[in-house]
Design brief:
By secondary structure, this protein is mostly helical. The protein is 71% helix and 0% strand. The protein starts with 18 loop residues before the first helix and ends with a helix.
């Protein structure tokens, strides 16, 4: 396990991650927490990182839903206009 002092702050690079990268790292963080054996400080750092990763995944999913809704609305508008 990496030393907490060597780890980036929970949100430092999360904004740069793709959905898949954030999801995969979140799975790793959860697995590491479930294994136990980490110090309290390490567990807190992992938890904070996991929270940041979960927020990033949610941002991606909300954005994807908005894009789908906009595409559906545009398609609905186009089909009405051509009728």
């Amino acid at each position: 396990m990496a030393d907490v002092a060597d780890s980036p702050a929970p949100d430092d690079d999360v904004a740069e991650l793709s959905y898949e990268q954030a999801r995969d790292e979140l799975v790793r963080v959860v697995s590491e927490l479930e294994q136990g054996g980490a110090t309290l400080e390490q567990s807190i750092a992992l938890w904070e990182r996991g929270e940041a990763l979960a927020r990033r995944c949610e941002e991606w999913l909300v954005g994807a839903k908005a894009r789908l809704d906009a595409a559906r609305a545009a398609a609905d508008h186009d089909s009405r206009a051509s009728s």
